[in-house]
């Protein structure tokens, strides 16, 4: 079922016609093994050199999108991340000293823990004007590009001159108290039906996908992600306009920029919670049927249900009448092979799920479809439709402005719905080139399954796969919530397991790029080992940076020793560029201070490289250094 079928009718529909629209929950995917043999990989590994100087890749003609394209011979590119002259050539001496000061301040626990109180006190003692001057000389100047889309253009142009692009992110946040945040969350995540009859609705709901007041403030334990709380539909429209302005600014500031959005800014989170539960329960029902056929021990990609046996099981369970079930397997080549896999499975419910009764779930005990909630108010139905409309509008603006749109990942109880909506955007807008990028959090146990399934769906349907790989932003919150409420911890057991998962997902996408040239990946990481891993794999596979299939991403003000050497060696690399008025980005700056505390305490590397470059300049007589570009 295409995104056009999924969203376009909703955009056109009035409230009276919504009940007649049909929607497809979690469309899933499977994988194809790499075409490269083990012998070829070993041979390439033996040929790999170990140099560390920065060299330019030999100019090559862009490789055709065809799988049959012949690779031109490539020089292997190696980056020297110890070369401070290259890493900091875009920075003046004052900027290097500011970085050293800010990073050192981030190592003091009392300053970080009380950073908001100290900033409030500074504002009162110094006055607004002096406070803003102080912030622009320190934390704001380090991590934020400017106050509006005009003031950030000089920084963006300077970074581009040194090979580094921009992912624009308007970083203004509400400064809510914990009590205010909890109240907003509970009001927006609980339906009217649940409020009126909490006991009746609780029978059908899973604890993970219900709002819990003790975790109502979603900012708790999160230091590297912005949080939106629902107020009303007008506020969502305002946030959509902010994203549109950001997209336009990105299009005007650079030729190949990115812009980032969050789904929770675009609608009532109740819809994301409930839709996520539906998608997970349908997936679980597939696993239940797979177990009936003795295939539960197979990987998710190998599980193919025998069609005739499946029809009998569905009829016996009472999921539908025999004739209805027979009709589900007609059209669109469904079941022609005599089997149904996870990709096919979701097609079965295209015609059984209406927008006004979207949240129908299978009961594993009876097999019958039951409503997750018995009643939806007209306003709740309109809110579902408006969220989809806003997503569609943003995607269209991204296309019109030549900007790629990255949808940020969020908490696991929202993420199935977020990924599903993002996938539907990709199916519509990624037909000719990658416009929409989904984000995969590799600290999740299911990250590899999610990546491989989505890649296979893009293969089957012929659109461009776009992914941003991150380790994840909600680990402490997710672990605490799972433990207290009582469901399985979705996070990998330790940091090393997350590293392995990240590299596993990354290698899979790189192999898909090698195989088809229709996949694209943003390696969003501050981990130097992961960057080196990516470069080694690109060298092994003959992937040239000039193809613009593999991107790198870091936050503004952090890890310049990674970003700028990559950019100057010809790799597509981007900084996440936050902007907004000083007073309104204080929550963002607070998180950066907390994040840098952890990074700086674990490693002195970035500060030592900054000191190394300052000493080099002083010994070379470059007391006053200005970047030339």
UniProtKB/TrEMBL annotation:
<keyword id="KW-0560">Oxidoreductase</keyword>
<dbReference type="InterPro" id="IPR015659">
    <property type="entry name" value="Proline_oxidase"/>
</dbReference>
<dbReference type="GO" id="GO:0071949">
    <property type="term" value="F:FAD binding"/>
</dbReference>
<dbReference type="Pfam" id="PF01619">
    <property type="entry name" value="Pro_dh"/>
</dbReference>
<comment type="pathway">
    <text>Amino-acid degradation; L-proline degradation into L-glutamate; L-glutamate from L-proline: step 1/2.</text>
</comment>
<dbReference type="GO" id="GO:0005759">
    <property type="term" value="C:mitochondrial matrix"/>
</dbReference>
<keyword id="KW-0007">Acetylation</keyword>
<comment type="similarity">
    <text>Belongs to the proline oxidase family.</text>
</comment>
<comment type="function">
    <text>Converts proline to delta-1-pyrroline-5-carboxylate.</text>
</comment>
<dbReference type="GO" id="GO:0004657">
    <property type="term" value="F:proline dehydrogenase activity"/>
</dbReference>
<keyword id="KW-0809">Transit peptide</keyword>
<dbReference type="InterPro" id="IPR002872">
    <property type="entry name" value="Proline_DH_dom"/>
</dbReference>
<protein>
    <recommendedName>
        <fullName>Proline dehydrogenase</fullName>
        <ecNumber>1.5.5.2</ecNumber>
    </recommendedName>
</protein>
<dbReference type="GO" id="GO:0010133">
    <property type="term" value="P:L-proline catabolic process to L-glutamate"/>
</dbReference>
<keyword id="KW-0274">FAD</keyword>
<keyword id="KW-0642">Proline metabolism</keyword>
<keyword id="KW-0496">Mitochondrion</keyword>
<dbReference type="InterPro" id="IPR029041">
    <property type="entry name" value="FAD-linked_oxidoreductase-like"/>
</dbReference>
<keyword id="KW-0285">Flavoprotein</keyword>
<feature type="domain" description="Proline dehydrogenase">
    <location>
        <begin position="156"/>
        <end position="603"/>
    </location>
</feature>
């Amino acid at each position: 079922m295409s995104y056009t079928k999924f969203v376009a009718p909703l955009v056109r529909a009035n409230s009276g016609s919504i009940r007649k629209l049909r929607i497809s929950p979690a469309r899933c995917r499977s994988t194809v093994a790499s075409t490269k043999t083990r012998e070829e990989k070993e041979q390439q590994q033996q040929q790999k050199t170990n140099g560390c100087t920065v060299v330019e890749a030999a100019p090559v003609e862009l490789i055709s999108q065809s799988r049959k394209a012949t690779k031109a011979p490539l020089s292997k590119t190696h980056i020297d991340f110890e070369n401070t002259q290259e890493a900091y050539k875009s920075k003046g001496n004052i900027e290097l000293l500011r970085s050293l000061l800010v990073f050192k301040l981030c190592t003091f626990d009392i300053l970080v823990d009380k950073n908001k109180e100290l900033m409030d006190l500074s504002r009162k003692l110094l006055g607004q004007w002096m406070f803003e001057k102080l912030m622009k000389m320190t934390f704001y100047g380090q991590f934020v590009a400017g106050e509006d889309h005009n003031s950030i253009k000089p920084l963006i142009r300077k970074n581009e001159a040194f090979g580094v692009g921009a992912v624009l992110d308007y970083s203004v946040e509400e400064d809510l108290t914990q009590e205010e945040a909890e109240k907003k969350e509970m009001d927006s995540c609980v339906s009217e039906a649940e409020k009126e009859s909490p006991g009746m609705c609780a029978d059908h709901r899973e604890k993970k996908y219900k709002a819990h007041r003790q975790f109502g403030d979603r900012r708790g334990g999160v230091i590297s992600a912005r949080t939106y709380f629902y107020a009303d539909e007008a506020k969502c429209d305002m946030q959509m306009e902010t994203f549109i302005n950001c997209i336009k600014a990105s299009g005007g500031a650079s030729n190949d920029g990115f812009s980032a959005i969050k789904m929770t800014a675009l609608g009532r989170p109740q819809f994301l919670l409930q839709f996520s539960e539906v998608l997970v329960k349908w997936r679980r029902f597939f696993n239940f049927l797979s177990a009936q056929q003795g295939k539960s021990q197979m990987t998710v990609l190998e599980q193919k249900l025998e069609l005739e046996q499946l029809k009998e099981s569905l009829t016996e369970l009472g999921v539908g009448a025999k004739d209805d079930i027979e009709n589900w397997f007609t059209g669109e080549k469904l079941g022609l092979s005599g089997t149904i896999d996870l990709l096919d499975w979701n097609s079965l419910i295209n015609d059984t799920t209406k927008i006004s009764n979207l949240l129908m779930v299978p009961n594993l005990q009876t097999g019958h479809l039951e409503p997750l909630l018995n009643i939806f108010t007209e306003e709740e139905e309109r809110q579902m439709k408006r969220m989809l409309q806003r997503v569609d509008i943003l995607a269209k603006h991204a296309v019109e402005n030549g900007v790629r749109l990255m949808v940020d990942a969020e908490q696991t109880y929202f993420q199935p719905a977020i990924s599903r909506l993002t996938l539907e955007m990709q199916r519509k807008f990624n037909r000719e080139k990658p416009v929409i990028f989904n984000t995969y959090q590799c600290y999740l146990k299911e990250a590899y399954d999610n990546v491989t399934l989505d890649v296979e769906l893009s293969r089957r349907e012929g659109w461009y796969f776009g992914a941003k790989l991150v380790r994840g932003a909600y680990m402490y919150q997710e672990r605490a919530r799972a433990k207290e409420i009582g469901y399985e911890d979705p996070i990998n057991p330790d940091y090393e397991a997350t590293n392995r998962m990240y590299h596993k997902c990354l290698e899979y996408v790189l192999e898909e790029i090698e195989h088809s040239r229709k996949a694209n990946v943003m390696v969003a990481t501050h981990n130097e080992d992961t960057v080196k891993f990516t470069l080694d794999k690109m060298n092994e596979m003959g992937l040239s940076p000039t193809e613009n299939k593999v991107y790198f991403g870091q936050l503004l003000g952090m890890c310049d020793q990674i970003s700028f050497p990559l950019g100057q060696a010809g790799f597509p690399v981007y900084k996440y560029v936050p902007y907004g008025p000083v007073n309104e980005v204080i929550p963002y700056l607070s998180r950066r201070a907390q994040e840098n505390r952890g990074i700086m305490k674990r490693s002195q590397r970035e500060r030592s490289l900054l000191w190394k470059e300052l000493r080099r300049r002083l010994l070379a007589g470059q007391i006053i250094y200005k970047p030339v570009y």
